[in-house]
Design a protein that fits this description.
With 530 residues, the protein is of the alpha/beta class. β4, α9 and β5 form a beta-alpha-beta unit. The protein is built from 16 helices and 12 strands. The strands form 3 sheets. Strands 1-7-6-5-4-2-3 form a 7-stranded mixed sheet, with helices on both faces. 33% of the residues lie in helices and 9% in strands. α8 packs parallel to α9 and α11 crosses α13. The chain has 2 domains: 257 residues, Type I PLP-dependent aspartate aminotransferase-like (Major domain) (Aspartate Aminotransferase, domain 2, 3-Layer(aba) Sandwich); 128 residues, Alpha-Beta Complex (Aspartate Aminotransferase, domain 1), CATH 3.90.1150. Its EC number is 1.4.4.2. It is an enzyme of class 1 (oxidoreductase).
Length: 530
């Protein structure tokens, strides 16, 4: 054991810590933090405020009759509470985040600084257009970058996230079909697509027809053509994720696009994985008619916790006329903001409006900051590094973990299955929970559904070789422990997290969304007697 001049151990984890229960419930810096409602009193205020003057109520008898029952804490207590709570959560700023198909990459602080510039941070959606020309100039420049990177003609900026963008693209397709007076009710969706794709199609009234994946995880053009023939004249669109959810680029995407267009239908591409091909391939050149782009994945805006997302949709010549309101048009030397149908030029036929305003301004600032700081060559390198890192993980684990589609290099994410755990007594869930004890968020599990026991890992371009080496070594150690019969390491994991294994299914199905005080306990007989 390494000792310092005071005779104390210096290497982390080498001191034998006494095992005992602390009075506070804390374990040094691992704080046991109750809910804020359990530590804050509702009958006081956390700061000193003068008693307000009596005012005449003007709510017509609708005044609140009871207290808000908000917990009161002082400012230091409030800060400590949320800092302690944050230490119980995993974040990209605390470690590698290997979620597959979710792109949890580092968010450069430069982006955050730009989003907080007063001219962007302080504007209000209801300000007159004349007072925010800089904001619209930024939106227009970002839109121009998105069209150049994708090789498309138009872009709708207002969708708020990926699924919202899917809805936008498919609504443009539906409007185009209606304008032509056609009766097309079928949308083809490959098994390797994101789950939101069939949901979006069904939401808009289309019938979803599934296309099976080939043995190599990709879509066969022949299977697409067969479905087109089976539903002669009824196919409205194909929704394809590329690179797909198996982490593979669709090699026959142009042939698939040609078949869809020949049938008079439209090609919708799920662009959630665009970060794998930015600067390398333009979806418009591949025959894509509409594609949403997750700014919160591809261009490093914050991601997780339900938002804030941003899902602009690029459109080809075939769909550009149907982009929703509002949009920005380049006028005579200046930008024109088109908000109403009375401002439309001939040929512009928007399907309507998806949201009240122009999109997620803060995400636009962050995304453009990311683009400008990288440049076209830097964006291309980011894609190349994302693919390189995923393949580095693939090669580092392929001798111990099983690859369902191992004959080809992957794109930005690598897909394993749980065959390597067969007969070990360790489940896929057990393996993922043991990763928490090692300080890692688990990878995406059981998705995509086309692979049994799927484990989908996306390291992103943000990670260094050193961090990937440690991650790979950790997974190798876990695999060898499982295969050597050390089931105890897995079956109760996580052992070291602030909370042990939780029933996530029950929490999702029966969430408790409101805190209620515990019921008063019955008086114990002894106490009653006294």
């Amino acid at each position: 054991m390494s000792m310092n001049t005071q005779g104390r151990p210096t290497a982390p984890g080498t001191a034998d810590a006494p095992v005992h229960t602390t009075f506070t419930g804390n374990k040094a810096l691992n704080m046991e933090e109750p809910l804020i409602f359990e530590i804050g009193r509702t009958d006081i205020c956390g700061v000193d405020l003068d008693e307000p003057e009596k005012v005449e109520l003007r709510l017509g008898g609708h005044e609140r009759l009871s207290s808000l029952e908000l917990p009161a804490l002082s400012e230091p207590e409030t800060m400590r509470h949320y800092v302690r709570m944050s230490r119980n959560n995993y974040a990209i700023d605390s470690g590698l985040y290997p979620l597959g198909s979710c792109t949890m990459k580092h968010n450069p602080r430069l982006n955050e600084k730009m989003a907080r510039v007063p001219g962007f941070a302080d504007i209000h959606p209801l300000q007159p257009v004349s007072t925010v020309p800089g904001a619209f100039e930024l939106i227009a420049e970002l839109a121009d970058w998105l069209m150049k990177l994708t090789g498309t003609t138009a872009v709708a900026m207002s969708p708020k996230a990926g699924a919202h963008g899917e809805q936008c693209g498919m609504m443009a397709i539906k409007k185009a079909i209606m304008e032509k007076g056609e009766d097309r009710s079928i949308v083809l969706v490959p098994e390797s697509a994101h789950g939101t794709n069939p949901a979006t199609a069904a939401l808009l009234g289309f019938k979803v027809v599934s296309i099976p994946a080939r043995d190599n995880g990709t879509v066969d053009p022949a299977a697409v053509i067969e479905k087109i023939r089976e539903n002669d004249g009824k196919v409205a669109a194909l929704m394809l994720t590329n690179p797909n959810t198996c982490g593979l680029f669709e090699p026959d995407i142009i042939a698939i696009a040609d078949a869809i267009h020949e049938a008079g239908a439209y090609f919708y591409c799920d662009g959630a994985n665009f970060n794998a091909i930015v600067g390398k391939a333009k979806p418009g050149d591949l025959g894509v008619d509409a594609m949403h782009i997750n700014l919160h994945k591809t261009f490093s805006t914050p991601h997780g916790g339900g938002g804030p997302g941003s899902g602009p949709v690029v459109l080809s010549d075939r769909l550009a006329a149907y982009a929703p309101l509002p949009f920005i048009r380049q006028g005579d030397g200046e930008l024109e903001v088109v908000e109403t149908t009375s401002q439309l030029d001939e040929g512009e036929k928007p399907f309507g409006r998806m949201t009240a305003f122009h999109g997620q301004m803060g995400m636009f600032v962050r995304a453009l900051s990311y683009m400008l700081s990288h440049g076209s060559d830097g964006l291309k390198q980011a894609s190349e590094d994302a693919v390189l890192n995923a393949n580095y993980v693939r090669v580092g684990l392929q001798d111990l973990m099983t690859l369902p589609y191992g004959e080809h290099p992957c794109m930005h994410e690598v897909l394993f299955d749980d065959s390597f755990l067969k007969d070990t007594g360790v489940t896929t869930l057990d393996f993922a929970k043991a990763m928490i004890d090692e300080g890692y968020h688990p990878m995406t599990m059981y998705f995509p559904l086309v692979v049994h026991g799927a484990m989908l890992i996306e390291p992103t371009e943000s990670e260094s070789r050193a961090s990937l080496d440690l991650f790979v070594a950790t997974l190798r150690d876990l695999v060898m422990s499982a295969q050597q019969g050390d089931t105890q390491r897995f079956e109760g994991a996580p052992y070291l997290a602030p909370r042990r294994r939780l029933d996530e299914t029950q929490a999702a199905r029966k969430p408790i969304l409101k805190w209620t005080p515990p019921s008063p306990t019955d008086v114990e007989p002894k106490a009653a007697a006294e």
